[in-house]
């Protein structure tokens, strides 16, 4: 329930703060005073479209905030908790618009997106403008209203979601089943490339290993010769070798007397060198024995490398990139081709999605048929009391040739204004007065079943007067008795039915215009009702009539 609203520098409102109550609140005032400004400000606070023109002239920004008591509305509490915006039992919405046209939105003092503001406000307030009947002429609005009345909104959303999922699968299936000639040619090319790369069967690091083996096999003869030469120099040469020369040097140095520490160190180093030279000679001899020329293996290695290099040149990549190329070709081919198994799987998914969609849409049709007669009967009852005693109201569920996102049928409101006349679509009703009354009847009926705590009616009683206006007022009062209703009106019969009454007036001071809102007490309210009845000049007759109207309300 809306508990308060604060408006600053919006249109001709300089500053306004109102405490609000349950029941029916009436807002009245002279033409041009700004009766609908509070409704317009509330609409912006709920996420409506705006521009820089709403900012009061000479000010930098407009600021609007609305506070709601949501203690009895778990849907709102859950939404706020899910979005980490909960604040005990309150919900405070705020909108700030700068003179440049930029705006910021807040929920419980935290910045939020405009879509979040709209989403949460849909649980809190429903605004019916004086041109609401224009949207009711659209079949889409009629369908939405019927679903809301029958509590079918969630089921209708399920049908739309399942329809979109099915269409996506169907489009994907059609695309796979209608591969173009260009795609087919590409598939053949990729298939050939993949087969060629698969036959090559290149292993990770194989090129590096082959190149090392090729270098080794190609240099075996040279390695044997060099190993023999090194070994001969160390030990095998009869004319003189390293080991024999070291042995002779050790013998000569050992004969020197006296044997000094320096000499002992030299002898020790020569002995170690001799040992190292003998071990090196032994290792070289062993290495020589392991070397064996293998021309056949060398040929195999060179042929394998040649095939790898030729394949790389053919595909215009480096030999090392052939493995990456194979993975890319395989991936692209899978995307284009998929395979028979994936095609069959996709067909199965599409069939299952369609079966689920038709089941949900069939259930929606059944419930709409059950709901439409109940809603039509209630609306017809209301419009009979609004000066159309012989009118018949019907809701047509016209089957469609194929399923749509909205189900198997098209919804349309039908009206027969007089007995003996065939029912026609509501959009073809010529009389604007009749259309206003029918629209109001629909709004009142749907408001009775609405789960939204606050309903706003902005001059929906245009074109209505006399006894019918009193019926309208009673309708709105009965709705307000079960929740909270705001009604902007120019009719005394409607205004008299309110539980609370605000008067809007326009003040001019220091060449500046501002709109003021005043809560009327008993006598002030009598005067306002009298003004609505007879104009600016009040007479005893109009005052007496006003008191009578207010008294009759209390007796009801």
TrEMBL record:
May be involved in recombinational repair of damaged DNA. Belongs to the RecN family. GO terms for molecular function: ATP binding. Pfam families: SMC_N. Keywords: ATP-binding, DNA damage, DNA repair, Nucleotide-binding. InterPro entries: DNA_recomb/repair_RecN, P-loop_NTPase, RecF/RecN/SMC_N. This is DNA repair protein RecN. Residues 1-509 form the RecF/RecN/SMC N-terminal domain. One of its GO terms (cellular component) is bacterial nucleoid. One of its GO terms (biological process) is SOS response. The keyword Transport does not apply. NCBIfam families: PRK10869.1 (NF008121), recN (TIGR00634).
């Amino acid at each position: 329930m809306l508990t308060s609203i604060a408006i600053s520098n919006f249109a001709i409102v300089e500053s306004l703060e109102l405490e609000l109550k349950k029941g029916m609140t009436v807002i009245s005032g002279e033409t041009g005073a700004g009766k609908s400004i509070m409704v317009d400000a509330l609409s912006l606070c709920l996420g409506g479209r705006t521009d820089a023109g709403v900012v009061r002239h000479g000010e930098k920004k407009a600021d609007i905030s609305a506070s709601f008591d949501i203690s009895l509305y778990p849907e709102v509490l859950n939404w706020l908790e899910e979005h980490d915006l909960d604040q005990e039992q309150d919900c405070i919405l705020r909108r700030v618009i700068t003179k440049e046209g930029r705006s910021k939105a807040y929920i419980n003092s935290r910045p939020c997106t405009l879509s979040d503001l709209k989403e949460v406000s849909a649980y809190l307030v429903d605004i019916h403008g004086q041109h609401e009947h224009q949207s009711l002429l659209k079949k889409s609005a009629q369908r939405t209203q019927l679903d809301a009345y029958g509590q079918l909104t969630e089921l209708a959303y399920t049908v739309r979601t399942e329809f979109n999922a099915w269409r996506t699968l169907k489009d994907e299936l059609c695309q796979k089943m209608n591969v173009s000639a260009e795609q087919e040619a590409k598939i053949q090319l990729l298939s050939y490339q993949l087969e060629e790369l698969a036959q090559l069967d290149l292993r990770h690091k194989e090129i590096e290993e082959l190149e090392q083996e090729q270098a080794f096999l190609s240099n075996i003869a040279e390695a044997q010769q060099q190993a023999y030469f090194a070994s001969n120099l160390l030990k095998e040469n009869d004319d003189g070798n390293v080991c024999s020369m070291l042995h002779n040097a050790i013998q000569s140095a050992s004969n020197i007397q006296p044997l000094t520490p320096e000499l002992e160190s030299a002898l020790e180093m020569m002995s170690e060198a001799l040992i190292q030279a003998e071990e090196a000679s032994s290792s070289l001899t062993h290495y020589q024995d392991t070397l064996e020329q293998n021309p056949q293996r060398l040929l195999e290695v060179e042929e394998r490398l040649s095939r790898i290099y030729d394949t790389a040149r053919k595909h215009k990549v480096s030999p090392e990139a052939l493995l990456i190329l194979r993975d890319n070709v395989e991936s692209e081919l899978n995307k284009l081709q998929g395979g028979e198994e994936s095609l069959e799987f996709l067909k199965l998914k599409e069939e299952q999605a369609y079966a689920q969609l038709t089941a949900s849409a069939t259930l929606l049709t059944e419930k709409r048929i059950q709901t439409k007669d109940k809603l039509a009967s209630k609306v017809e009852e209301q419009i009979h009391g609004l000066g159309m005693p012989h009118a018949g109201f019907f809701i047509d569920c016209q089957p469609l040739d194929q399923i749509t996102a909205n189900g198997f049928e098209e919804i349309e409101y039908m009206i027969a204004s007089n007995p003996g006349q065939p029912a026609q679509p509501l959009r073809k009703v010529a009389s604007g007065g009749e259309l206003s009354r029918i629209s109001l009847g629909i709004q009142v009926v749907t408001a009775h079943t609405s789960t939204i705590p606050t309903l706003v009616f902005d001059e929906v009683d245009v074109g209505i007067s006399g006894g019918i206006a009193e019926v309208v007022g009673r309708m709105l009062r009965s709705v307000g008795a079960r929740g909270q209703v705001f009604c902007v009106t120019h009719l005394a019969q409607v205004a008299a039915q309110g539980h609370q009454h605000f008067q809007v007036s326009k003040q001019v001071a220091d060449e500046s215009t501002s709109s003021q809102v005043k809560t009327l007490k008993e006598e002030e309210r009598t005067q306002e009702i009298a003004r609505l009845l007879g104009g600016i000049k009040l007479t005893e007759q109009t005052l007496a009539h006003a008191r009578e109207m207010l008294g009759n309300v209390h007796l009801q």
